[in-house]
Amino acid sequence: MPQTLDQQMAFLAEIEKLKSVTRATPIHDASRPENSAEHSWTLALYAVILADQAPAGVDIFRVVRMLLIHDLVEIDVGDVPIHSQNGTAHDSTAIQEAEAAAAARIFGLLPKPLGDDLHALWTEFEAHETPDAIYAKSLDRAQPVLLNLQAGGGSWIDYDVTLAQVEERVGTKVARGLPALWDWVRARITPWFEARG
């Protein structure tokens, strides 16, 4: 038992580092960037509050667990903003490999089988093929859009993002798991982009 507790506490100490990972998206009032821990916590609440919108068969408890751990790899890799690829080389293979190595290291801090279970849950999220992962990924893509809207444009302005880019990079993933949410979001972001010309 002491060794198990040592491993659990080492993992919990490690994940505190997620609070210092800065994201591109500002918080609602644009006063500062969101951090990855805040993002994960918010997504867990999104999963609970929007549970009535989840497709049949989605296990909300599994989704909450998935969302709480989905960005732990950013402790090693940092946040890779979805729109940072505008006009630059964006090596998604290298990023995926770095994130996989980070997942192995971070979840490897935990005793088995818990570490293996959480690592498998993270892998499932990344693949976004199961109903739980599709729902989780839809929320993960929707939340930054809503923050950018609340913050007056946020990272859309920083990265010179167009509505077409949001629809392609975000809308397709949100609509896959939560089509009504994407319709709701799109109706609110379209006027913002149109007003910018």
TrEMBL record:
Q: What is this organism's lineage?
A: Bacteria, Pseudomonadati, Pseudomonadota, Alphaproteobacteria, Rhodobacterales
Q: Which Gene Ontology MF annotations are present?
A: 5'-deoxynucleotidase activity; metal ion binding
Q: Name one GO cellular component term.
A: cytoplasm
Q: Give the Pfam families listed for this entry.
A: HD_3
Q: What is the protein's given name?
A: Hydrolase
Q: Which Gene3D superfamilies match?
A: Hypothetical protein af1432
Domain HD residue range list: 15-182
Source species, domain of life = Bacteria
- Coiled-coil annotated residue ranges, if any: none
Keywords of the record, alphabetical order, are: Hydrolase, Metal-binding
